[in-house]
Design a protein that fits this description.
The protein starts with 9 loop residues before the first helix and ends with a helix. The model is unreliable at 388-393, 395-405 and 411-423 (pLDDT under 50). The protein is globular. The chain has 16 helices and 14 strands. It has helices spanning 10-18, 26-36, 51-64, 84-97, 115-122, 132-140, 157-162, 166-174, 191-200, 231-242, 254-266, 280-292, 302-305, 325-332, 353-363, 415-422, and strands at residues 41-44, 77-80, 105-108, 127-130, 151-154, 181-186, 205-208, 219-225, 247-250, 271-274, 297-300, 315-318, 342-348, 368-370.
């Protein structure tokens, strides 16, 4: 199927063509017709599937059918996202595909000055992309009027709930007109997501382009077993030996991200860390440098990395496994995007075997496990709880939990050579 078969108007098709696209991704091919029909929709799509264009393209088409006669712009579409980076990415998509349409868009999020955002809203906005917290701040200052919103998009709803935004979301929804089109996107489904859908969506069309709670089949996933204290050294060794030039690394904590970035710099491996304590300017510069190849390694926490849009990212490394199995799916979804093959590698110590089993159960896959010569784990080391704030446990920021310390099944053979071949 080609985009021109989806009943999109000439200005939008022109913008799509200028971006070099002719064929929609599966989520776009399925979602766009439903949205153009005015249906509410629940879409289950992993990151990297093209879901942003899946709702921005039909949104622009629908809004273009009823251009206001007055010059004054008012908010006709509201898109809520969980993070600053994703909000900026979505608004950039709106501008890209709407470049030949007379719409004004704006993006608002925290971490930057509020006055320029207030001024932008005063000048009139048709499409508003926002994070919940800053949107509510502006609403409290009477700088935002949502009374004429026609379309409402809740993007990455699962992450919204994970970050504790459910109350903020409900406050925003209460201010919207009852008659509106609702679109909800989520990479994973949970009971909380189902409950949210029931309260927002009316007879929704269901679009699902990947099996629920699974990792992309385009991502080569593997595990290297190593002692907790040797993870950073092993990572540096892998980057150096394999000559990796672009690696996104996940840690559990902000402190851990800073510490790893500093360690890599001492190994002459250029790197930067992004997390919630970094200013928006610092986060934007780090991401820009990473995309440009100025730095080889970007170290991130889960919240900071959500919504990162990096074309053809070849490597994602979990220095530490997430305690929530679904977050593993989100993390590795940074690679293997839009049809490209990627690699996701997890460095796992004895403290994390319980987390690893939970991840394998979720994705219904036994991950390939190996060791690297010179970095084999010490079998005498016993598992310790991973405690909140990195207390007496070795691993990070979660509550203590029990572990029987038994190692996951490991493949036999020459692990160093096999591991190198996989990368």
């Amino acid at each position: 199927m080609l985009f021109k078969k989806l009943n999109l108007s000439a200005p939008i098709l022109k913008a799509i063509a200028e971006e070099g696209y002719t064929t929609p991704t599966p989520v776009q091919a399925q979602a766009i017709p439903y949205i153009l029909d005015g249906r509410d929709m629940l879409a289950g799509a992993q990151t990297g599937t093209g879901k942003t264009a899946g709702f921005t393209l039909p949104m622009l088409e629908i809004l273009s059918h009823n251009l206001p006669q007055a010059k004054r712009h008012h908010i006709r579409a509201l898109i809520l996202t969980p993070t600053r980076e994703l909000a900026a990415q979505v608004e950039a998509s709106v501008k890209t595909y709407g470049k030949y349409l007379p719409f004004k868009s704006a993006v608002i999020f925290g971490g930057v000055g509020i006055n320029p955002q207030i001024n932008a809203l005063k000048n009139g906005v048709d499409i508003l992309v926002a994070t919940p917290g800053r949107l509510l701040d502006l609403i409290s200052q009477k700088a935002v009027d949502l009374s004429r919103v026609e379309m409402f998009v809740l993007d990455e709803a699962d992450r919204m709930l994970d970050m504790g935004f459910i109350r903020d979301i409900r406050k925003v929804i209460a201010l919207l007109p009852k008659q509106r089109q609702n679109l909800l996107f989520s990479a994973t489904y949970s009971d909380e997501i189902k409950k949210l859908c029931e309260s927002i969506l009316r007879n929704p069309a269901i679009v699902e382009v990947a099996r629920r709670n699974t990792s992309s089949e385009l991502i080569k996933q593997s595990v290297i077993l190593v002692d907790c204290k040797r993870k950073s050294a092993l990572l540096g060794h892998l980057i150096d030996q394999n000559k990796w030039t672009q690696v996104l690394v996940f840690t559990r904590t902000k402190h851990g991200a800073n510490k790893l970035s500093e360690y890599l710099q001492k190994m002459n491996i250029t790197s930067a860390a992004i997390h919630g304590n970094k200013s928006q300017g610092a986060r934007t510069k780090a991401l820009s440098d990473f995309k440009a190849g100025t730095i080889r390694v970007l170290v991130a926490t889960d919240i900071a990395a959500r919504g990162l849009d990096i074309d053809s990212l070849p490597h994602v490394v979990n220095l530490e496994l997430p305690n929530i199995a679904e977050d593993y799916v989100h993390r590795i979804g940074r690679t293997g995007r839009a049809g490209n093959v990627g690699e996701a590698l997890s460095l796992v110590c004895v403290d994390e075997y319980e987390y690893l089993r939970g991840i394998e159960k979720l994705i219904k896959l036994n991950l390939d496990k190996s060791t690297v010569s010179g970095f084999e784990p010490d079998p005498s080391i016993k598992a310790e709880p991973i405690s909140l704030g990195g207390g007496r446990g070795r691993g990070g920021n979660q509550r203590p939990r029990s572990s029987n310390g038994s190692a996951p099944k490991k493949r036999s053979g020459s692990t160093h050579n096999r591991d190198k071949n996989r990368r």
